[in-house]
């Protein structure tokens, strides 16, 4: 493993978190209260456009995942 590659990847993830969501996605990701102890957890996505329509790429307990709006049906 190359430390610089890990740093570049981490910086990229941080920057991706601050990219505005696409038009029409007015809901926000739920807060993450606890996180796993893995140093570099596997991500299912990096940004919203990596997810199916109607889902957002959100931080989860362990890595980023595509989530649906839980409040949509209420």
From TrEMBL:
Q: Which is one Pfam family of this protein?
A: WAP
Domain of life the protein comes from? Eukaryota
InterPro entries registered for this protein in UniProt: Elafin-like_sf, WAP_dom
Coiled-coil regions in this chain? none
One MF term from GO for this chain? peptidase inhibitor activity
Q: Which SMART domains match?
A: WAP
Q: Name one GO cellular component term.
A: extracellular region
WAP domain residues are: 22-70
Protein name from the UniProt record:
WAP domain-containing protein
- Which organism does this record belong to? Ficedula albicollis (Collared flycatcher)
